[in-house]
Amino acid sequence: MPKFRINRLNQSQLNYELSIRGLQTGTVDKMRKSQAIKLEKEGGSISYPNYPYTFEEDKEAIVGVVSKVEDNLSDAQLLSPASKRYSVNETLLAYALDRLDHIPVISIEQTTWKSQMFTRIKNLSICWKGSWLAKRSS
């Protein structure tokens, strides 16, 4: 899965990416220009503060993103890599996996949900890309 493209994230997703790095949030344009995000995009690194989100907040955000990509799966024109939505969906899946990876789990139920969601996201990525390839070859 490629790294996310900051120009494809919405305001709440950018807020998340900056807040987990301990950085201030603001307008979408200001957040996209964040030096920390650019540094990580270019392969640099920064130190992360304590994780500021709860399991429920992460769960809600991830389920919303995955549902949006699932809704897009049935629309054939969105499956072409040349389309803008293809890049958006690819970025959303990368964002969902990144956020899933950061979730601190404290119960067996949370661990189970996290494992099931990981499988769902990976299967969605395979299904989504496979559907495009199948449509392309027919």
From TrEMBL:
Q: What is this protein called?
A: Uncharacterized protein
The organism named in the record is Henosepilachna vigintioctopunctata
